[in-house]
Write a structure and sequence with these properties.
Layout: E1 2-3, E2 6-9, H1 13-24, E3 29-33, E4 48-49, H2 63-70, E5 77-79, H3 84-97, H4 100-128, H5 130-133, E6 136-137, E7 141-145, H6 148-153, H7 155-164, E8 169-170, H8 173-179, E9 189-193, E10 197-199, H9 202-215, E11 219-222, E12 229-231, E13 234-239, E14 242-246, E15 248-251, H10 257-261, E16 275-282, E17 292-294, E18 299-304, E19 307-311, E20 314-316, H11 326-336, E21 341-344, E22 350-352
Parallel strand pairs: 1-14, 2-3, 2-15, 3-11, 5-20, 7-17
Antiparallel strand pairs: 4-10, 6-10, 7-9, 8-9, 12-13, 13-14, 16-19, 16-21, 16-22, 17-18, 18-19
């Protein structure tokens, strides 16, 4: 039996960061995951350390938009009809909590994270060294709008950014062309958020942080978090190297958390969401220097080590259901009207929860 002060379950960005900071505070920490660090949700995201995360994913109020979602015609969201009964109460709670007052509450709470996120990542990356810092870009990201109406809806975000001190710049067309000369003319409005950092391989950053954790005396073990039980010292989890016990546990399993928490009688209001990505080459000499959010279409293009990553919006489906990459198929021709994408580099879309 291996003993520790804390077991951290889940080696994504949240779990690894928690493990690093617990180790800094002198705690004896074992980090446990069924795979290597950064191999699940943290592998497939857009690689953004966001300063301006003031507006949550909100339940649509506009009837036209709601109809598009209901008919499953919007590339920004997709759902499996058979899954809706399982998340209906969660969606109703989302609707109740993303009215104007809910967005205000969310912004006030999330500002406490967002105003520190970039600085904290920079500090961790500096400690982790070249293996992390080489992936970081410090040139912000862009939100672009294809319509006047879409840009008008961003007034809420801009008002909250003004309140909480997040910098942004509404760009003229020449200014946008100077930053991203190969974006196409479909863009009517563009806003640069210069304080946001981005990375070219999110999974690689997590792996670098995990290596820092181990250099600082932390331990990593392959194991199934669902084996967690109450033990003599508080908690025990089975790993390939034998059982590990500790008085405290951090659960950082993202959409797998409920597999562990529900049997323990802990009712947490979580619902899984899924997303897809694919990597593409650029046509000719076209370049993309930073992530670009196509706000009206609900997708992001971001330059990654593996190519230009196209990420989709949300899919509401059972976490482990077979992939239904409908959104990414919808978005391929749409994305090509924004930026000159060439052939796909991946044989199939990645899907993650």
């Amino acid at each position: 039996m291996t003993t520790a002060d804390v077991i951290v379950l889940g080696a994504g960005m949240v779990g690894v960061s928690a493990a690093v900071h617990l180790r800094k505070r002198g705690r004896d920490v074992v980090l446990v995951d069924r795979r290597g660090p950064g191999e699940e949700t943290s592998f497939g995201n857009t690689g953004v350390v966001e300063r301006e995360g003031f507006v949550p994913v909100a339940f649509p109020r506009d009837l036209k938009a709601l109809a598009q979602y209901a008919l499953n015609r919007s590339p920004a969201a997709n759902y499996h009809l058979t899954h809706l009964p399982r998340v209906a109460s969660w969606l109703l709670a989302l609707r109740a909590n993303t009215d104007d007052a809910g967005i205000e509450r969310y912004a006030a709470a999330n500002d406490l994270l967002c105003r520190h996120a970039v600085a904290e990542h920079r500090a961790l990356a500096a400690e982790a060294g070249y293996d992390a810092e080489r992936y970081f870009r410090r040139n912000g990201w862009l939100r672009v709008y294809r319509s006047d109406a879409g840009f008008a809806e961003a007034a809420v975000l801009h008002r909250l950014a003004d309140r909480y001190g997040a910098a942004y710049k509404v760009l003229t067309r020449p200014e946008l062309s100077d930053l991203e000369p190969h974006l196409l003319d479909v863009v009517k409005h563009a806003v640069l958020w210069p304080e946001t950092d981005t990375v070219s391989w999110p999974g690689g950053v997590v792996k670098a942080y995990a290596a820092l954790f181990e250099r600082n005396g932390g331990r990593f073990a392959i194991g199934d978090a669902r084996s967690l039980t109450r033990g003599g010292r508080g908690w025990e989890v089975a790993t390939e190297g034998g059982a590990v016990s500790a008085p405290d546990v951090v659960v950082a399993l993202g959409p797998w958390s409920l597999d562990l928490l529900k049997p323990l009688g802990l009712d947490v209001p979580l619902a899984p969401k899924r997303g897809y990505h694919m990597h593409f080459s650029a046509k000719g000499n076209a370049t993309l220097n930073r992530p670009v959010v196509d706000v009206d279409m609900g997708c992001v293009l971001t330059p990654m080590e593996a190519g230009i990553r196209l990420t989709t919006g949300i899919e509401f489906a059972a976490r482990d259901a077979p992939p239904t990459p409908r959104q990414i198929e919808q978005l391929k021709p749409i994305a090509r009207t924004l930026f000159p994408l060439a052939e796909a580099r991946d044989p199939a879309p990645w899907v993650g929860s």
